[in-house]
Write a structure and sequence with these properties.
six-stranded mixed beta sheet; about 30% helix; alpha/beta; about 35% strand; about 100 residues; globular
């Protein structure tokens, strides 16, 4: 997986490209660890092809760390189904 990072003030955008599987989740975790409590995070998911449960755990970790200041942008239909099944769509802001 490739992560492209951009930042405007306290808003950090991470574009996730490829597969967020068990091997790639620590890469996202490392980026999340760099954030401070005052930051907000946008995960750009338009080019995300696959997500494993370890990737979903990173979404939850970011949501908790940032006090809910997490946005998932351009969520695919498949990922939206997973988010609805896990009820994360009720906790995390989603923009398409």
């Amino acid at each position: 997986m490739e992560i492209v990072k951009t930042q405007e003030g306290s808003e950090v955008t991470l574009e996730l490209i490829g597969e967020l599987d068990t091997e790639a989740a620590p890469q996202l975790e490392a980026e999340i660890e760099k954030l401070s409590e005052g930051d907000s995070l946008v995960l750009e998911l338009e080019r995300l092809e696959y997500i494993a449960s370890s990737g979903l755990r990173q979404f939850v970790a970011a949501h908790k760390k940032l006090g809910g200041k997490l946005v998932l942008r351009h969520v695919s239909n498949n990922l939206m189904g997973i988010l609805k099944t896990t009820r994360l769509d009720k906790r995390i802001t989603i923009e398409n």
